[in-house]
Amino acid sequence: GALVHGELDFGNCIYTKKYQPLCKDRLKVLEFDEWRGFSLDPCPNYLRHAFFEAYKNDPEFERVDAFICSHPAANCELYMPFNRSLIVYPTTRLEFGRDDDSVDWRQPYENLRSKARWAEWVANMQRIAANPMNVIAGNSKYEVEYIRYHTGIDAMYLPSWCGDKTDNNVLAPTTDKILLGPYRDNLDYPRFDEEEAWKHPIMTTMLDAAKEWKRSHGSAPEFVRLRQHYKHYEFSDLQSHPCIVIIPYSALIPVSYTHL
């Protein structure tokens, strides 16, 4: 067995009740800018050194046997000097935080060093994979192939675990409302206007189909966005709906960091 120490030093954790006890605000070195921390700007070498100096004698770090790096996985570079096992488990993009100008909010942090830093991360990932005490894993077969394509590493396929199947996690609908998820669907991006999201072509097409169904059959399902219907929720709340329509905003949206 293993003990997992988890803390979330980011504002998003307040949106799900079960995560709120993990919400902390005590991160050293990187706390100055939680967005810039994705790429360790403005001086990655300085920040990596400062991070190591801040935590090398930290009592909590001293009892840690392994670090898990997911979002961004590239920040496993922070933990390489600690000589502990590293579990690199990418979420959406292996290059996230290094060379990711396709993500518009990351563009201000892109610079002439970005492509070189992406190459450095690939080389570091290969060094990590070469040590048998470390693990490189992918949450989906897509991610496994993505890692192999960019690094030549044969990553372990490690799919999401959704808990043991019991009578407590089966559908038990008490409402006819159909949820639209995940919690973060990005349909309101970049304006972050909840009502604007309903004007997105995906939503209007779905609503038009529901109206047509109602004309033909006399009734139609009601669609509700998960993020608007529940400010906070448990998985048991989701079981009260007949189904959930998942609208992924990227190739991979693991519940480890994106609320279902």
| Radius of gyration from the alpha-carbon trace, in angstroms | 21 Å
Low-confidence stretches: none
Average pLDDT, rounded to a whole number, is 83
Strand-pairing-aware structural class: alpha/beta
Quaternary structure: single chain
Q: Biggest sheet: strands side by side, in what order?
A: 1-2-3-4
* Count of helix runs: 8
Helix proportion range: 25-40%
What percentage of amino acids are in beta strands? Answer: 5-15%
**Largest sheet features:** 4 strands, parallel
Shape descriptor reads globular
Q: Helix and strand succession? A: HHEEHEHEEHHEHHE
Strand count: 7
Head-to-tail CA distance between termini: 27 Å
Question: What topology does this entry show?
Answer:
Blueprint: H1 44-55, H2 59-62, E1 66-69, E2 85-88, H3 114-130, E3 135-138, H4 141-151, E4 156-157, E5 177-181, H5 194-197, H6 201-217, E6 222-225, H7 226-229, H8 235-238, E7 244-246
Parallel strand pairs: 1-2, 2-3, 3-4, 5-6, 5-7
Report a brief summary of the structure:
This protein is an alpha/beta fold and 260 residues long. Helix content is 28%, strand content 10%. Strands 1-2-3-4 form a 4-stranded parallel sheet. The protein has a 3-stranded parallel sheet with strand order 6-5-7.
